[in-house]
Design a protein that fits this description.
two-stranded antiparallel ribbon, alpha+beta
Length: 51
């Protein structure tokens, strides 16, 4: 496992997304990951999310 980080001004589109499921921010490293996080957060069967 590695820590979540990104370089400021880097080529990636990393960031943090608020999750109602976890009631906390979840990190993502691409817009594809962000979109999947949003879909998981909307699914009532999902009980946890981690990046």
């Amino acid at each position: 496992m590695r820590g979540f980080r990104w370089a400021k001004g880097g080529r990636g589109l990393a960031g943090w997304c608020w999750s109602a499921t976890t009631r906390d921010h979840v990190g993502y490293e691409s817009w594809l990951e962000r979109d999947r996080l949003i879909l998981l957060d909307l699914d009532p069967q999902v009980v946890g999310i981690a990046s």
